[in-house]
Records
---
Amino acid sequence: MIYRLKKENPQKEFYAASRVLMYSNMKITGLEDVYYSLVEDRYKIEIPEGIQRRAQGALDKMLEYV
């Protein structure tokens, strides 16, 4: 998020609330990797139902602003 903000607003300075929020593997994974993992069904991800409901609620709230 900060990378995009800096790219769109080079004259401004942005600071992360916490470095803990950035995982080192996040920058390694690209769109092509995500695409092939979905097409080839490479990785199975299981998320507990309670977390799914809370995540869906958060996504729904974010999409209200779009």
---
Amino acid sequence: MSQSRLSSFIEAVINIIIGFSINFTANWLVFPLFGWQISTTDNLLLGAIYTAISLIRSYTIRRWFNARIHKAASQLAGDAP
């Protein structure tokens, strides 16, 4: 059974929310170790940019894998040439 586009999107969003939280906390903890000081606003903006990139990446990869799995299953079932 194929995963719907909506399910792929929801999975990607949940993954991104978790990733954003980890990224924000990591920036807050790691940047000072390198002498980099950024404001909370800058940290949120940086996180938002990387979140948008990650959302697109996650959704695209999920749909690509889903299509490959669906195609392979169809071929095994004899539905495709």
